[in-house]
Structures are given as structure tokens and as C-alpha cells.
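Contributing new complexes? Match this layout with magnesium ion.
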Amino acid sequence: MLVMKFGGTSVQDSDALQRVLSIVASHAPHHNGIIVVLSATSKTTDALLHIARTAAHASEEEMQPLLLAVRDRHVQIATSLIANVAQQAIAIQRVHQLCDELTEYCQGIAVLGECTAQSLDMVASFGERLSTSIFEGACKAAGLTSTWFDVRSVMRTNESFTQANVDHAIVRIQCKATLLPLLTSSSIVVTQGFLGATADGRTTTLGRGGSDYTAAILGAACGAEEIQIWTDVSGVYTTDPRLVSEARPIPHMSFREVRELAIYGAKVLHPDTIAPAIDANIPVRVLNTFRENDPGTTITASQPHDADLHAVSLIRSCVAIHTSRPTSFLHEIESHVLLRASTAEATVFILPARTDAERVAIDVAVAGADVHRTNVALIAVCGPHAQAPTSVETLAAVARHAQMIVSGASDVTTFVVVADEHALDTVRAIHGILYSASSE
Ligand code: ASP
Ligand code: MG
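Output block (do not edit by hand):
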């Protein structure tokens, strides 16, 4: 059984949804059931949250165009996506039903003159309910065996509206009882990312961007063979493609590497969101909806050893603080320290200094202390053998301007510290050796 999650841009319009449909259809015969988890169409969650907040103080005339825009967009998507007349009519009717319900709910907010966190979640939920309703209709029209499933019936959370915590034990029990039985061979269950519900049935959400998390939780609860996160990039890249044009997706990497890259500047998927899958030893694949034949990136709990180094990330605008007596100021900035390295005589701290607030915090903390400070960039090099002597030697050879080369606390990372003006050249030089560094 497979979980396939498609994000907002993957379902943004009828063309994108048509691609999703063909991707899902091509996987259906090869797996014992598929759970399709969808986000709202792109920007719809933002629009709905704006609608909910506006409803508290705006007139009906002001609300009307906002609500109409959501309705029209989804009617239009259903119309152009679903050619089959009967299925199209059902889908459009469903869109109208949901939008009527949304309108009524907003009138309720207007009467109260207040938009609570609970109302925000309820209004936001229409985004995923709309996208999944349309897509499920398209599955039926394409002749697939599909079921629309309300994820709120299994995704039990607490009452922390807009950031609800999931009760994994209850989710597991409810999935076994109601979701798993729907997954027979070649069946497709279409459900919502991001949404949950309290024990008494009130709608919650798992936090913005929460659909990846939904996919991981459902995959773990149902024992999926794999969880696929379909997005608009072809995986986790060797470095930021905007910095190095030769950057390319890493075929296979460990969860620990993803976590390190996320901490040290790379814009990869949020590691916490896939943790339930990794804990259950289920591989997570990141794939591109718009380039479906690209192999993507497979993330596993176990560490692949296919290369010495996998990726290089960069945090610019850092400050290095050199001191022989760190104790006098450390406690004030400790939580911001990205890297700490000590020799017998001195300690160096690397701290981010990108914002005024970060710079002021450093100034205040070290005021009067005996320190020397320089502007640096922090480069993190991740890989199965990032700390092997051969890797460190290779890094030292290409990072000509390195001020320090330091082993990270996690054994998949080595750090290179350079003056900020050498940041880009150094990242490019290191990227050049990523795949030529031989594995053991
Ligand atoms: N639709 C939600 C959001 O925009 C959840 C998601 O897309 O993951 O935050
Ligand atoms: Mg998203």
C-alpha cells in the first residue's frame, strides 16, 4: 500500500490535477491500494484565512466577492477537469454545497463579531475538502475505484486549534477500523492533508504546511510500503540550485542528513513532518509532479553509503566570536549558537547575524567581554563519510579560504567556516567534489 501526497501547486488548476490523476492511475495497478493525500489548491488556505478574519468585521457586500472567488475557481477547475457529464455535475454540486456551508459559517462569524482560532480552522478546512472532492470525482470519471474519505474521522487531535497535536495511538486504532478496510487492491482513497478533529468532532488543523505530516501519519498508521511526497521540485538537491547551476537531486539519503541540512540552511522539507514515517521505518520519496519520470530523492532511517558526501548548504551573514573566556556572556546567546569549536586556548562561536534583532542580541551579549569578532559564512557538508579523514582532506584542499574545518556533533556533517566574501566560491568548489569523492 502506498501513500501519495500532492501539495498546493500540484493541485493548483485542472492541468495540474490532470497530471496528478495520470500519476495516481499509473501507480494504482501496482499497489494494494493507494491513499491520496491532497493539499488545498495553491493560495486557497491563505484566501480562506483572510476570509475568516475579514468576516468578523466586514459587511456582506465586502464578503461576497471573496467567497465568490473561491467558489468560481473550484467550479471552474471541476468543469475543465471532469469531462464526464454526470460526474462533473456531481462534483460541481459538491463544490456548491461546500461553498454554501462556508458562506453560512462566515455569517456566523459576522454575527459573533469575532474570529476565534477554532473558526480559523473550520474555515481553512474547506480548502482541502474542496480539492479532494473535485479530485475524487475526477478519479471516478476516469474509471478508477475511488472513495472520498473525511480524514477528520481518524485524525484525532487535542484542542490546540491552528497547531493541533495528534494523538497517534487513537489515529492508529481508527485507521485500522475505518481506513484500512477501504484499501483493497487497486482501490484509491482520496483524503485531506492538514485537517484533524477533536474528540468531540470539532475541526482542527495541524499547522501550516501540515499535509506532509498527514501523509507520514497515515502511512505509519496503515503500514504503507512507501510514502511519496509529490511537489514542484525533483527532490532534495545537492545544494541550492540558485547558487550552483549543476546542483541536482540526491538519489538516496538518510533522515539524519535531511535534519542536518534543514538546520544548516537548506530549504528541504521540514524533517519533523516526516518523522512518523521514519520512526516506522517507511521510506519517504520526494518526487516532482511536473517531471514525473525524475527519480526524486528517497529518504530512509538507515544511512546509504553510496558516496562520501551528499550535499553542501550555506548560511551567510554569520558572526564568529573568538574568545578565551566564553563563560562571561555565553548564557545570553547560547540558544542561537550554530557551531561551537574549542581548542586548548580559545573557543569560537558561530552565530547567525542576518537580522537587526540577531545583531543586537550579539552586541548586547558580548558588550564589555574580551572577544574578537569576524563576519563569516557557515558551510555544512553532509554525507555518509563527511567526517572521514579522506573527506576532510579533500575539503581542506578545495576550500582554500577556510578559516576552520570542524566536525559536527552529528557524524554526517563537517563544517567549513570562511570569510563571508569567500562563501559562494567555496560552496561551488565543494560542490565540485561531491560526487568525485570516492566511497569507501
Ligand atoms: N493547505 C495547507 C497550507 O497551505 C496545508 C498544506 O498545504 O500542507 O498550509
Ligand atoms: Mg504546501
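Reviewers usually confirm one structural detail per submission. For this one: Residues 2-232 form a domain with the Carbamate kinase fold (CATH 3.40.1160.10).
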